[in-house]
Amino acid sequence: MQDIALTVQILMKIFVQYKVEFALTTTPGGRRRDIVMIASYLVMGFCCGLRGNEPFLMEATAVCEYINKGKSHEDSYVCLLLMRRFKNEDRERNAIHFEYQ
Q1: Measured on CA atoms in the order 83, 100, 45, 67, is the torsion positive or negative?
Q2: pTM above threshold 0.70
Q3: d(CA 38, CA 59)
Q4: Domain boundaries, the chain
Q5: What is the DSSP letter of 6?
Q6: Which of 17, 39, 82, 91 is buried deepest, with most CB atoms within 10 A?
Q7: From the CB of residue 58, how many other CB atoms can be counted at a distance below 10 Å?
């Protein structure tokens, strides 16, 4: 149903199913990559409040760079760079910062 929001409960059920499938030794490497990519898309889209195709505007190289900074706790935020104009902004690339504790 396209106009119904994704709830935390539904998101968690999706992640439980993905976790089980990922842990299977019979799951091929390509499918595991798909699971990681889809789960990342869902987390970033949900946490950032992005809808529709907006998560596809995330710049992959920058996301990978900032994930590594987040792992080492260099910054107190996660930065997701979005390509093109976003939400009526006039710059070509915009940054969304999320604080974490």
Answers
A1: positive
A2: no
A3: 15
A4: 1-52, 58-101
A5: P
A6: 82
A7: 19
pLDDT tens for each residue of 74-91: 666 667 777 765 556 555
Write down the residue that tokens 């987390």 correspond to. Answer: 43
Provide the β-strand partners of residue 82. 58, 94
Answer yes or no: are the C-beta atoms of 44 and 58 closer than 8 Å: yes
Torsion of CA 74, 75, 76, 77, to 10 degrees: -140
Phi, psi of 41 (to 5 degrees): -60, -45
Cα 60 from Cα 44, distance rounded (Å) = 12
- Residue 60 in 3-state DSSP? helix
